[in-house]
Specification:
The protein is α+β, with helices and mostly antiparallel strands and 139 residues long. It has a single domain, classed as Alpha-Beta Plaits, CATH 3.30.70.120. 24% of the residues lie in helices and 22% in strands. It has a four-stranded antiparallel sheet with strand order 2-3-1-4, covered by helices on one side. Helix 1 runs antiparallel to helix 3 (96-107). The chain is globular and about 50 Å long. It starts with a strand and ends with a helix.
């Protein structure tokens, strides 16, 4: 079993859920997260998530909330965190490649901020209600 964690643009969530459902893997957890990549939260108009307010664009007057670190330290520019969605799912080993390819196909725009996908091994899984383990617990 593997855990797939994908951090994606907010506007790609519905399309991603639909594709995973069509692949037969509708079970996932979704969280709203804020973060930044190697661009350090600096984005410009053509890279923005369509749902992202203008306050996150460094080319307009800065009105976004800076990080606590930025408030406590002198930084060359305020460290912004960009809102994203984080999807987490546990799947059998033999379908990881198919799911990852689908996630990439749907979420790749070619612009900064397309996200990340992490694949991690899962040693054990247990369904609390029934006591099922491993593959039976994730189905």
């Amino acid at each position: 079993m593997k855990e797939i964690t994908a951090i994606i643009r907010r506007d790609k969530l519905q399309e991603t859920k639909k594709a995973l459902d069509e692949l037969g893997y509708p079970s996932l957890s979704i969280q709203s997260v804020d973060g930044r990549g190697k661009q350090r939260g600096a984005v410009c108009d053509n890279d923005l998530d369509p749902e992202l307010p203008d306050k996150y664009c460094m080319s307009v007057k800065l009105t976004a909330t800076p990080s606590t670190y930025a408030l406590e330290h002198t930084l060359p520019k305020v460290a912004l965190f960009v809102p994203k969605r984080m999807l987490t799912m546990v799947v059998p080993d033999d379908v990881v490649s198919k799911i990852v390819k689908s996630l990439i196909k749907i979420n790749r725009t070619g612009k900064t901020g397309d996200g990340k996908i992490f694949v991690s091994p899962i040693e054990d899984a247990l369904r609390v209600r029934t006591g099922e383990r491993d593959g039976d617990a994730i189905a």
